[in-house]
Specification:
Helix content: 25-40%
Structural class: alpha+beta
Shape: globular
Order of helices and strands: EEEEHHHEHEHE
Strand content: 25-35%
Length: about 160
């Protein structure tokens, strides 16, 4: 078995949708990025890629490539799953935390878990998504952005 760690952060701006874990969340601002800027899904993708020593999402989906402009991050997660399969690995579980002052995310966590689990071919029970604030500290505390971190465990496909 192997584990990987992922982290992502994006700035909050007007005139963008807020998408986390593949779920659109009603909010007056959204995350700025080349794709849909879904920091939660990005952190999970980096954790999975890191677990199999396959680089990071910037390497596979560079923001200099117009193909990925506005891309659905759950689609990109499925692409990461294809990379894992080609390398002979599959995920076992994922644990992730979103850091945001607002909006309150608890009502959306079950749907995030379901969408992410489905994209990774995992049972919902193998995907943990939590949310916390940073008690008003730093850029996240000033509501300038949202961050996410994730840990993923993978095993060889042969052990499935």
């Amino acid at each position: 078995m192997r584990s990987g760690i992922g982290f992502d952060t994006h700035r909050l701006v007007a005139h963008r949708k807020l998408i986390l874990g593949g779920v659109e969340i009603p909010h007056e601002v959204g995350l700025l990025g080349h794709s849909d800027a879904d920091v939660l899904t990005h952190a999970i993708m980096d954790a999975l890629l890191g677990a199999v020593a396959a680089g990071d999402i910037g390497q596979h989906f560079p923001d200099s490539d117009a193909r990925w402009e506005g891309a659905d991050s759950v689609f990109l997660l499925r692409e990461v799953m294809a990379i894992l399969r080609r390398r002979g690995w599959r995920p076992v579980n994922v644990d992730a935390t979103v850091l945001a002052e607002r909006p309150k995310l608890m009502p959306y966590l079950p749907e995030m878990r379901c969408r992410l689990a489905h994209a990774m071919g995992l049972a919902v029970e193998a995907v943990s998504v939590k949310a916390t604030t940073v008690e008003g500290l730093g850029a996240i505390g000033r509501r300038e952005g949202i961050s996410a971190m994730a840990v993923a465990t993978v095993c060889p496909e042969a052990d499935a």
